[in-house]
Amino acid sequence: MRRLIVFSAVPALLLGSAISTNAQEERSLARKGRVVIPESSIERPEDVGYRMHTNTRIFVSADRANWGAEPNGLALPDNMRTAAVGPPFAGYGFETPASLACLYGLVTKVVGCNPNTFKTNPTGGTKAIGIVDAFDYPTAMADLNAFSAQFGLPKVTTSTFKVIFAGGTGGCAGSDPGNDPGWEGEQALDIDMAHAMSPNAKIFLVEAASASLTDLLVAEDCATQMVASAGGGEISNSWGGSEFSTETSSDSHFVHSGIVYLASSGDSAGTSWPNVSTNVVSVGGTTTRRMNSGSTLGNFIAEAAWEDGGGGLSLYEPRPSYQSVLPAASHRLVPDVSSDANPNTGVWVYDNNATTGCCWYVYGGTSVSSPTWAGIVNRAGHFAASSAAELTTIYTAYSNATTYAADYNDITTGFCSFYDANLAVAKFDICTGVGSPKTYVGK
């Protein structure tokens, strides 16, 4: 399988620990890791408007001597999988369910929110979260339960987690679409993060027959049916593609009473669809900076815009009424909100992937952000009547200084966009929207 490999511009955070000499050497190599963009996340000119892609990047530490090689080039090394005390491996500063919950005020915060020491997970959640992706993930339930066991989250069962092949009669009666390793990684990331943020919500993983727009919209409609049958909830879409002139004709697939639709803003400068749809909550990316030395090693420093996060002014989507509180613009602005997405400050994901290896990965990209936010919105328990209602709540909070300060982390450092021309500034910007979550209030 072809992949585009890029060297990470910022070394991944490495946390020290009392470990063996060999393990110390392995950890020191991790400082020099690389970021891999899977084939499924690469868009080609002929794809626009017809074929969608994932928004994932994988951090691969340099202790993978055969990084990028098959079959085990992307997962953490076999000889590190014995560290049951780690998150999942002791000495690394990548984000966990508990550390994200701490950063975003979803649990009682402590100074630093250190992922190696802070273990308090989010709790609760109800109704349902739909996850729409392409192709089949044959070990989805087993992998999600392995992730859950490592981090102390509730186990899922056939009653709380369902995989559905989209297509056929009624849109939810398709056949097994076969496996794609890149889309499998996307699905692992999506279900892990949604479950992490709302561990008691039911999850429907709806698998499209292919990555074509037509098939993904069939899957979207199937997810809508499933979530509606569970009493409502959220649907997360971590896929997308460049904007195209007829995109608004498909926006109706993201409207249903009692369901909030979310989508990743993309992993490159500019705008993409469906996150620009006026019927979707657009979720952008941030960087969660942490100390890498000294007595405060591993502690949170600040949250900044992620340089590669998508955002800007839509080419075709009209300016929605809920954005009337923003400066005048001719079309819709995205993202609306944001959360951690930088692969150098990424999240742990479990995937027993037959092609790229088993089992622990560090994922980034705005594919992290969308399911994270879907889980947070679900756990908040407000269950807006629609995406428009959810967005109205977001921008109403934004327009009130007191409410805004209580409900959102205002991201004011970092940059994004073409030529890195746009800075994260006070309140709204096209790198991070109104900011990242602060507690469940107003979500």
Give the topology, please:
Blueprint (H helix, E strand, L loop, with lengths): L3 E4 L13 H10 L3 E4 L19 E4 L36 H7 L24 E7 L5 H12 L9 E5 L15 H17 L4 E7 L4 H17 L3 E5 L3 E2 L16 E6 L7 E2 L7 E10 L9 E6 L6 E7 L12 E4 L2 E4 L6 E4 L9 E5 L1 H15 L6 H12 L2 H7 E2 L5 E2 L5 E2 L12 E2 L6
Parallel strand pairs: 4-6, 4-7, 5-6, 7-9, 9-11, 11-15
Antiparallel strand pairs: 1-2, 2-3, 3-17, 8-10, 11-12, 13-14, 16-17, 18-21, 19-20
Helix pairs in contact: 3-4, 4-6
Characteristics of this structure?
single chain; disordered N terminus; 443 residues; Rossmann fold; 8-stranded mixed beta sheet
Describe the structure.
The chain is α/β, with parallel strands linked by helices. It has one domain (4-437): Peptidase S8/S53 domain (Rossmann fold), CATH 3.40.50.200. The chain is built from eight helices and 21 strands. The protein has helices at 21-30, 97-103, 140-151, 181-197, 213-229, 366-380, 387-398, 401-407, and strands at 4-7, 34-37, 57-60, 128-134, 161-165, 202-208, 233-237, 241-242, 259-264, 272-273, 281-290, 300-305, 312-318, 331-334, 337-340, 347-350, 360-364, 408-409, 415-416, 422-423, 436-437. Strands 4, 5, 6, 7, 9, 11, 12 and 15 form an eight-stranded mixed sheet that branches. A five-stranded antiparallel sheet has the order 1-2-3-17-16. Helix 3 packs across helix 4 (181-197). The N and C termini lie far apart (40 Å). Mean pLDDT is 89; it is low at 1-30 and 65-72.
